[in-house]
Amino acid sequence: MENPQPKCNQYSDFYFVTNPLYIVDFYSDAPCRSIEFSGCASIFQDSDVKVSGVKMEHSDPSPLKRFVQAKKKISDVFEQLLLYVQEGSEFVNDTCNNESLEQIAHKSQLNQIKEYSKKLSTIQEVLARRHMKVAFFGRTSNGKSTVINAMLRDRVLPSGIGHTTNCFLSVEGTDEDKAFLKTEGSEEEKSIKTVNQLAHALHMDESLDAGCLVKVFWPKSKCALLRDDLLDSWIDKFCVDADVFVLVANSESTLMNTEKHFFHKVNEKLSKPNVFILNNRWDASAAEPEYMEDVRKQHTDRCVSFLVEELKVVDRAQAPNRIFFVSAKEVLNSRMQRAQGMPETGGALAEGFQERLKEFQSFERSFEAKGGNDVRLEAARGFNLLIFELSRLQQIQALNPLLSECISHSAVKTKFEQHTITAKQITETVKDVMDQINIAAAEQRVVSLEEKDYLIDRLDFVRNQLNLLIQDIKKKIKLITEEVENQVSNAMAEEICRLSVLIDEFRSDFHPSPQVLNMYKSSLLQHIEQGMGKNLAFRCSDAVNASVQNSQHDMIELVKPLLPSAVQHQLPMLVPSRKFELSYDLNCATLCADFQENIEFQFSLGWTALVHRFLGPVNAKRALTLLDHNLQLTAPSTPLAPVAAPQTQICRAPAQSQEELMLSMVNNLASLTSRTSMSLVIVGGVVWRSVGWRLIALSMSLYGVLYLYERLTWTTKAKERTLKKQFVEYATEKLQMIISFTSSNCSQQVQQEIASTFARLCQQVDVTEKDLEREIQRLSDKIQKLETVQNRSKVLRHKASSLEEQLEDFSSQYLRHDLKSIDD
């Protein structure tokens, strides 16, 4: 079929010039073809519009002016609504992305509002469009082009019989650059360059039986439909802004799933689209009039079920008004006959033509009621899209003369009612979202306030209890240290009393030489320090360690209520697992560094020994000191030298008489004492005269024998015993001096151990206090943010209410008024 050439048609006072429009058809069961046909664009000479001899001035209060006013008002409302939804989307997005505001807004709400924003943008584009758009959909050869041509009363769109085939086709994509096909039962690849060549090849191949399968492999690079499922994107691109959808069905068959699937997709994209179902080729029913009503009822029931139950776009009472049974070809031929001045019923027409013509005219009136300023018609099938644009003036001239009247009464309702309903639904939904956010924020604010108050009370409790606990622990530490000090003091006193036993246990090489003697004393000091430390530890350490552990355990139990449960289990880690050991640190080497031993021989009945024995160490020392002082005073007046000489002479001359010897001894004794010791001499004389010289001699002999015995027994062992004895006396005195110091040192160790443990516990309490302070601050910030969210959600909710009022005013002013006019 040749492409129509550009031409100029003249209708009454209006002139139309052709404007070529490029169309590409995609067929699932037919070859792909490219067609150019003439669409019409209007150019009119004056500013007045004439319809059926009636002149309408633009200044008249016409329905068209009302339509313009309604369009301006609804456009303003949708502009505000879009800004409102975008503001709400930004608000919900900020709330969702705020980590401190969990469970206030959800991603689903954000996605929902974003979808509303996209939908409103699309509706805005539809409202801004200066023409109405109608999409015709149906399978190939159902008569979409013929229906449009019948409405236009001329063969404007190409229609007719094209190439067909008697076999089933399976079209698959291939990555190769060339197209080819395979027939059933053969692996031979038949090369084809174009779809027309494919159709011709199938048509001319007589070897193909009816019902055989032919697989067509078409390059993916040449047809995007073979790459992806583009139904959604196709609907978004061409049909999402359509005002009316017309399903052109074949009345000789029934509705197919492909046709239903398309409208289900449309229904997902648009809320309650305006759908008409046109059962074309109804003239075929004239051949079997006895089944006409049954078939009509069957088609009607299925169409009503599809519109009401599946799409849910109309109710059951309105559905029959959306279903028509027509023969577009008959109407087209009839109107073309009339346009040529010939009778409408001329030519071969099937029986019942007038009824089908009235049905088509009824469809036209219903369709025209969906019109506006301009009409854009789209004819579509599964993979077939035809686009045709016709201006409002051409539509008035070419279509029914009553089109203007229909537009006047229902254009506002048809054009804006569904969008208004959608806007109300969107506004209501967004308002509900704001209410949900407001309620969630209010609930969380109440919870946060309660939690904050609880944490403040908790913080005050922790601080007060910690202060009380510090005072209590100080008292307990003082009691424990005093107890330890007394215990160590008593134990050390007992060990000092047993010092002689400890020293007797010491065994080491002894020699009077200074070097060996110094080593001996060092070892002795080390032995004493180790022995006393061991004995003190045996007496005190276990009890002190038990006391320390008990006090630490008591402190943990007292601190536990001040800490969170998660931290309470970690408290035993703050207490050292090692056993507490006291360090007594006697430091005997320093303490006894000035010890000077005296291991020279001293007769036990000597003057010094007797004085020490009878007067005691302290008094003996005083007496000897006084004696030395008296000797110094009497030395100048006493003739010591003559006395000493006779003494020497007495020792050397045993022949002297006993009286002289006694007198010499008395004189020597008198010289060693003072003048006050004359009484002793007198006593000695009395004894001499009383007992006689023999007894005195015997006593002196015994005294000498005793002296000799002691002198002979003064061995190294005796010297060692003397040194130990002297050291016991010396160390006892020194250790007595450090009892208080050592016990105090031990108590300080215990105090430090307990205090350090309590300090670690207090540090953990301080960490808890800081955590509470941070949590309180976080809750304060969160409460402030929640209040901000509440205030903003309230503002957005009030905006939604204002928009609802505007939409309700628009509905009351335009939609309900127009509906009442139509009913009248």
Short description:
Pfam families: Dynamin_N, Fzo_mitofusin. It is built from 22 helices and 15 strands.
Name the average pLDDT. 70
Largest beta sheet, briefly? Answer: 6 strands, mixed
Helix percentage: 55-70%
Instruction: Measure the end-to-end span.
Output: 49 Å
Give the neighbour order of strands across the main sheet: 13-12-11-6-14-15
Overall structural class, as computed from helix and strand content, comes to alpha/beta
Portion of residues in beta strands equals 5-15%
Radius of gyration: 64 Å
Low-pLDDT sequence parts: 1-61, 194-200, 224-230, 369-410, 633-657, 672-676, 818-824
What is the global morphology? rod-shaped
Walk me through this protein's architecture.
With 824 residues, this protein is an alpha/beta fold. The protein has a domain at 607-734. It is 61% helix and 11% strand. The chain has helices at 63-97, 107-128, 144-152, 195-204, 231-239, 257-269, 292-311, 328-339, 353-368, 392-398, 403-497, 499-504, 514-559, 565-568, 588-591, 607-634, 640-652, 658-672, 678-691, 693-712, 716-737, 739-823, and strands at 8-11, 14-25, 33-43, 49-51, 54-56, 132-137, 168-174, 179-183, 190-192, 213-219, 244-250, 274-280, 323-325, 375-381, 384-390. The protein has a six-stranded mixed β-sheet, with helices on both faces. It has a four-stranded mixed β-sheet with strand order 7-10-8-9, covered by helices on one side. β14 (375-381) and β15 (384-390) form a beta hairpin. α11 (403-497) runs antiparallel to α13 (514-559) and α13 runs parallel beside α22 (739-823). It starts with 7 loop residues before the first strand and ends with a helix. The model is unreliable at 1-61, 194-200, 224-230, 369-410, 633-657, 672-676 and 818-824 (pLDDT under 50). Residues 463-490, 762-813 form a coiled coil. Keywords: Coiled coil, GTP-binding, Hydrolase, Membrane, Mitochondrion, Mitochondrion outer membrane, Nucleotide-binding, Transmembrane, Transmembrane helix, Ubl conjugation.
